[in-house]
Amino acid sequence: MKKIYIGKTALKTQRNGCKHPKRSSFHDHKDDLRKRLSYTTHKLEMVEMEFDSTRQYLETELRRAQEELEKFTEKLRRIQSSYAALQRINQDLEDKMHRTSHHHEEEKRALRGEIIVLNNHLMEAKITINKLREDNDLYRKDCNLAAQLLQCSKSHYRAHKMSELEAQGGGLI
Questions:
Q1: From CA 134, how far away is CA 141, in angstroms rounded?
Q2: What is the residue range of 94's domain?
Q3: Residue 19: which region, alpha, beta or left (left: phi > 0; alpha: psi -120 to 50)?
Q4: Confidence check: pLDDT of 10 > 90
Q5: Within a domain: residue 155?
């Protein structure tokens, strides 16, 4: 592989007046390489500008996304705080409902006990009333029998007793 010298060496040979056929091809090659370098440099500058604009755009988008993330993070924090507060309220309400339910169950049991006691008293009262009615019927029958007996025999005792009863304001019906 041959080394190609560009720059001062090539210029010196031209000044000396020596003309080489390879020199013009080197010169053409050199110009072609310079054009390619210029074109590549230009493309590189364009890519660099595009890279810079893309980087700026992405940085702007990143800032916007970070701001949105901060907003959503704050919203999430508030939602979590509200959720925790609602859980506490819900737990308090559940506890209150449980206590109220337990209280009502105890009250219900107590009322059932009272109903049983009152039903027992009612049954006893009915039995007592029935017993008193039976006794009353027996006493009425005894009184009627006694009245009939007194009406049947007209004794001095009966007249004496009748006058006493009439004087007291009572009488037999």
A1: 10
A2: 27-123
A3: beta
A4: no
A5: no
Average pLDDT over residues 101-127: 95
Residue 53: CB atoms within 10 Å: 10
Question: CA 139, CA 146: separation in Å to the nearest integer?
Answer: 10
pTM strictly above 0.70: no
Q: Is residue 62 part of a domain?
A: yes
Which residues in 40-128 belong to E strands, given as ranges? Answer: none
Contact 38, 25 (CB under 8 A): no
Find the distance separating the first CA and the last CA of the chain, reported in whole Å.
Answer: 164
Indicate whether 128 belongs to any domain: no
In a domain, 172, yes or no: no
How far, in Å, CA of 158 to CA of 149, rounded?
10
Q: How confident is the model at residue 9 (pLDDT cuts 50, 70, 90)?
A: very low
- Quick check: 26 and 5 in contact, CB under 8 A? no
